[in-house]
Design a protein that fits this description.
It is a single chain. This protein is mainly α and 411 residues long. The chain folds into 3 domains: 175 residues, no CATH class; 141 residues, no CATH class; 68 residues, no CATH class. The chain is 74% helix and 5% strand. The protein has 18 helices and 3 strands. A hairpin with a 4-residue loop joins strand 1 and strand 2. Helix 3 packs across helix 6. The longest helix is centred in the middle third of the chain and has 34 residues. The chain is flat and about 85 Å long. The chain starts with a helix and ends with a helix.
Length: 411
């Protein structure tokens, strides 16, 4: 690790324990040199994060929680861009009036706080009151940077948009992430090959498997790697199964052992193409698969298929495991709903899901009583639970106890 980065990290780690913000990232030159006073702390990151989260919620994705790391990292990249723009302004003796900025934040914050109902709703969304101020501050800061940058270009009579100018200037800079929760996302962002992403998935799978306490953001970042690896291996498995079926469609099945040179010679024989177009196309596909996967025997093909099937099973099981652990930790509705939708053949998940449904319905009952909406939902849930519990003989008492609790809410 660069000594300057290490020293700065230690200093700000000490400060963080005395009430200061936590450092997320540093702006650097393209060759990795830290630029002085260029750090980005959590107040800037989360100030932008809530703006992007708000926009993301408008999409209506019911599993938006799974994109937490991605939203955070994209927010960081936006803040980095504005920090770089502000640096350019400062280098040209143009500065943001932070006293004026803070006055605007105070004004907006106090105006919001004067409406108790809206303010309380805002606190729920922003988790903490300080995040409301950070959100306002970052929003105003970005507006001021945009405004001053546009004025600068106009005053200098530079006939180019801020976006086009900045794109070229931005190429001189980079950023370094020092905040652990975004380490995986940062690494993913630097990878441009699927094969590297698959290697990274295996690397972090081992770490997450061995470490007891990893940041939630690591889990969400890892899940992205897991999905990429799973999809890639599933597609490869489908290819290899097609390859096997094609090979077996020939009488002796020995076509898989033919060299690429021999296959080429066969494909160049026009008589085959004219005689039987289907056979010709089969040879073409076999040539394609052999070129792509370099497999020269049925035993080798079967072995590769078995390895892929095991890999897919391992990926699926590990995904299920870490999501269950995350649910035990956070009890979040999105996690249990995702688990139940994707792994409903798992006894523990079925039980956890209906136990969660019971808790929700019990809370609803305590607030609103047994209204029509309540009765419809709880009866439907009870029917589903009874149908599912009948398939689990070994854990019958566990499910019967849950069924009893559901019936108590109905009676």
């Amino acid at each position: 690790m660069n000594f300057k980065i290490y020293l700065l990290s230690v200093i700000f780690l000490i400060l963080s324990f005395t009430g200061f913000s936590e450092i997320i990232s540093y702006i650097s030159t393209k060759d990795g040199k830290i630029i002085e006073n260029s750090y980005i702390d959590d107040s800037l990151l989360y100030g932008r994060y809530y703006e992007n989260l708000k926009n993301y919620l408008n999409i209506g994705d019911k599993y938006y929680l799974f994109n937490t790391s991605n939203i955070l990292f994209n927010s960081l990249k936006e803040v980095v861009d504005y920090k770089i723009m502000e640096k350019y302004l400062n280098d040209n003796n143009i500065f943001i009036d932070y006293d004026s900025l803070n006055d605007k934040v105070d004004l907006n914050y106090n105006r919001l706080k004067s409406n108790e109902f809206i303010f309380n709703k805002s606190v729920i969304f922003f988790d903490e009151e300080k995040n409301i101020r950070n959100y306002m501050k970052v929003k105003i800061w970005m507006e001021l940077v945009d405004e001053k940058f546009s004025d600068f270009l106009i005053n200098k009579k530079i006939n180019i948009s801020v976006e086009n100018w900045f794109e070229k200037y931005r190429e001189n800079f980079d950023f370094i992430v020092t905040w652990k929760p975004l380490k995986i996302e940062y690494r993913i962002d630097r990878i441009d090959k699927t094969s590297k992403l698959i290697e990274t998935e295996q690397f972090y799978r081992n770490i997450i498997f061995e470490e007891k306490d990893v940041p939630d953001e690591w889990i969400f970042s890892y899940l992205k790697l897991n999905d990429i690896s799973f999809e890639n291996k599933k597609n490869t498995l489908e290819d290899l199964k097609k390859f096997k079926a094609l090979s077996q469609s020939f009488k002796d099945g020995k076509v898989i052992e033919m060299s690429l040179i021999n296959l080429s010679q066969v494909l160049n024989e026009k008589s085959i193409e004219l005689e039987n177009e289907n056979i010709y196309n089969s040879y073409k596909e076999i040539y394609y698969y052999k070129t792509l996967y370099d497999i020269n025997s049925m035993n080798e093909l079967d072995e590769r298929i078995k390895i892929l099937e095991d890999d897919l099973n391992d990926l699926s099981n590990f995904k299920k495991r870490i999501l269950k652990e995350l649910y035990y930790k956070n009890k979040d509705s999105q996690i249990i709903n995702y688990l139940y939708s994707n792994f409903s053949d798992d006894l523990d998940i079925d039980y956890l899901y209906f136990d969660y449904v019971y808790e929700v319905m019990n809370e609803y009952y305590s607030l609103y009583g047994r209204d029509e909406n309540f009765m419809i939902k709880i009866k439907n849930s009870l029917t589903q639970l009874q149908n599912i519990s009948s398939t689990y003989d070994e854990d019958k008492p566990k499910f019967e106890d849950l069924i009893y609790k559901f019936n108590k809410l109905i009676d």
